[in-house]
Amino acid sequence: MTNNHTELLRRHKSNPILTAADWPYPVHSVFNPGATLLADGTTLLLCRVEDRRGLSHLCAARSANGVDGWRIDPHPTMAADPEHFPEEIWGLEDPRITYVPELSEYVIVYTAFTRDGPGVALATTVDFHEFKRHGIVMSPEDKDATLLPHRIDGRWALIHRPVSSPRAHMWVSYSSDLTHWGGHKLMMEARLGGWWDANKVGLSPPPIETPRGWLVMYHGVRQTAAGAIYRLGLALFNLKNPEVCLKRGSQWIFGPEESYELHGDVGNVVFPCGYTVLPDGDSIRFYYGAADTSIALATASISAMLDWLEQDG
Ligand code: BMA
């Protein structure tokens, strides 16, 4: 057992890097952004923005250096359209972005807040200005989903987190056309008892493809007498069979500590939905929602996370 979790992810000194006060139109809170690097090197965050009705939409923020100088779209970039997509009646949340070379498109998998709870919806875009919706791909209650960036043995793979109350585990499902999904496999179970990741786990940002396997950062939800604590852990999965877990860390690596993570609409939450990898191929920036209120940044090294898993997994 090691106790070096404080070194694996380092908070940026200007955290939180984006708050509601930065928005060009009135909003309540901004959090849980998907992230990607555009072809010209611009960092794009697709932020979850909650308005004062309590409903969320998605809004793009772009920055040349990924830290500051954000250019935020003057209007909601992707707003709910319940007239045409009734499953979006209560908004869009928690997008994960995957660039898919085969399609030359970005695939955005997000939570559509339906009348019956959260479901998984999929949309595609080339420019983050226009979006093609493909509708619900996993019926409620299901969330924390992302698409892997390429087919595996001819099939697309979608990681998601259905709820079988009170427990919730990560699953992977397969499709040949991004529309019809099957071959459902349990990927990773929540632990039991007193563990930090007992009863409820979910994918956080999209998996990181490494020569050793898919490196997955996931959240564990610890229920306490004072409410839930959202912390992050690591696991490694087989590249050809993503339902096969090769390693799973025993300890969490990152949890709420700073005031902007401890206090907010939902205190004690760190919730990354995206990352960008720097040109060295190893340095990684996680963009995370802090206390369901603001957006923060933490940096890490992919090889250091893999090495940690070798020891702790
Ligand atoms: C999860 C998701 C996240 C949220 C977190 C903490 O279930 O709904 O959007 O950040 O709860 O409230």
Task: Provide structural commentary.
The protein has 313 residues and is mainly beta. The protein has 3 helices and 22 strands. Strands 10, 11, 12, 13 and 14 form a 5-stranded antiparallel β-sheet that branches. Strands 15, 16, 17, 18 and 19 form a 5-stranded antiparallel β-sheet that branches. β16 and β17 form a beta hairpin. Bound molecules: beta-D-mannopyranose. Beta-D-mannopyranose binds next to β6. InterPro entries: Glyco_hydro_beta-prop_sf (IPR023296), Mannoside_phosphorylase (IPR007184).
Contiguous low-pLDDT stretches (5 residues minimum) are: 1-5
Give the overall shape.
globular
CATH architecture, by name, is 5 Propeller
Q: How many domains comprise the coordinates? A: 1
Mean pLDDT: 96
Q: Gist?
A:
The chain is mainly beta and 313 residues long. The protein has three helices and 22 strands. It has one domain: 5 Propeller (Tachylectin-2, Chain A).
What topology emerges from the helices and strands here?
Blueprint: H1 5-8, E1 10-11, E2 29-37, E3 43-50, E4 56-63, E5 71-72, E6 92-100, E7 105-114, E8 117-125, E9 132-138, E10 142-147, E11 156-164, E12 167-168, E13 170-175, E14 182-188, E15 201-203, E16 208-210, E17 213-224, E18 227-237, E19 245-248, H2 259-262, E20 270-277, E21 283-290, E22 294-301, H3 302-312
Antiparallel strand pairs: 1-22, 2-3, 3-4, 4-5, 6-7, 7-8, 8-9, 10-11, 11-12, 11-13, 13-14, 15-17, 16-17, 17-18, 18-19, 20-21, 21-22
The structure holds beta-D-mannopyranose.
GO molecular function: glycosyltransferase activity; hydrolase activity, acting on glycosyl bonds
Keywords: Glycosidase, Glycosyltransferase, Hydrolase, Transferase
Protein name: Glycosidase
